[in-house]
Amino acid sequence: MKAIVCVTLKPDVLDPQGKAIQRAAAALGHSAIREVRQGKLFEVEVDAVDRGAAERLLREVAGKLLSNPVIEDFRIERIEA
User: Fold this and answer.
1) Which residues contact 28 (CB under 8 A, 6 or more apart)?
2) Which of 14, 25, 60, 70 qualifies as a FRET site for 52, CA 20 to 30 Å off?
3) Where along the chain do its domains lie?
4) pLDDT, tens digit, for every residue of 11-21?
5) Is the Cα torsion angle 49, 50, 52, 55 positive or negative in sign?
6) Within 10 A of 13 (CB to CB), how many other CB atoms are there?
7) What is the pTM (predicted TM-score) of this model?
């Protein structure tokens, strides 16, 4: 199975990279871009018996390895057979 896991900074964590992107967009004339929050996207291939087993495995790996739980949240965007 293939899954997409998104990791983003928690809302109360400052995001200097996102702010720099927002300022650069404004400098290019795109003042409609109000805020940018950067993150990470992981494509993960997993061998699992079923979707539930895949999700349990992905939650454990994302919570312990792909993200820093102190400053980041994660979400599993999709799991495909």
Assistant:
1) none
2) 70
3) 2-80
4) 999 999 999 99
5) positive
6) 13
7) 0.87
